[in-house]
Amino acid sequence: MMSSVSTTSFLGGRTLLAPSNGTMNKSARATWMPGSKIPAYLDGSRPGDYGFDPLGLGEVPSNLERFQEAELLNARWAMLGVAGCWGVEAGGFGTWQEAPLAAQQSWGGIDLPISNMSTLVGFEILLMAFAEQQRISEKDIKKRMYPGGSFDPAGLSKGEGFESLKRKEIANGRLAMVAFLGILAQNQAYPEGLGPVQALLNHVADPWHVNAASNP
Q1: Lowest-confidence pick of 94-98, 103-107, 158-162
Q2: Taken in order 165, 171, 172, 174, is the CA torsion positive or negative?
Q3: What is the overall mean pLDDT for the chain?
Q4: Coil, strand, or helix at residue 14?
Q5: DSSP per residue, 116-157
Q6: pTM value?
Q7: Cβ(25)–Cβ(17) below 8 Å
Q8: Mean pLDDT in residue range 156-176
Q9: Which residues touch 173 (CB under 8 Å, ≥6 apart)?
Q10: What pairs with residue 4 in β-bridges?
Q11: DSSP string across 49-89
């Protein structure tokens, strides 16, 4: 009897399993680069796993779990950060650099009972410390990453498409981390405080002269 799988080929960044009878298995493993060698410990079971670990940082199982958790949390913060940078400027409340320095802090045009930046930072640290303490007290790493319950009021984690949502979340989170690096780079290039919305408008108006290559 012929074995079900005998060779491995690469096509468009996907590792295709080729049965020895000449037919092609429809299942495919997405890879970060066509022809790349996938480490054995990256088996595709984790959301967003495309076999990328050239330095072998995830070879130790406990490290791999910790890196996965850290990436997901940073991805979520990046999505919030990018949305905040855009939202405050799009809403007409100044740029993200100016908003925290305002004499009177506000949210959505509503004045808050916070008089200065130090009070705001201290308040945020207390809230974040409490939330993080509650999270790390959970020993199950899967529950730490996807707690559900009151953290999922829409009940998305109970649907059949939950695994697909995990992949979409990490994909958008990785994009947001790159986007936030771009926002920081643009802020360094324009120390006068150009925000991401205005930077995009300037680029759209003259893409050939206003781009990353033309930054001062």
Answers
A1: 103-107
A2: positive
A3: 80
A4: strand
A5: SHHHHHHHHHHHHHHHHHHHHT---HHHHHS--GGG-TT-GG
A6: 0.75
A7: yes
A8: 91
A9: 71, 72, 74, 75, 76, 78, 79
A10: none
A11: --S--TT-TT-SHHHHHHHHHHHHHHHHHHHHHHHHHHHHH
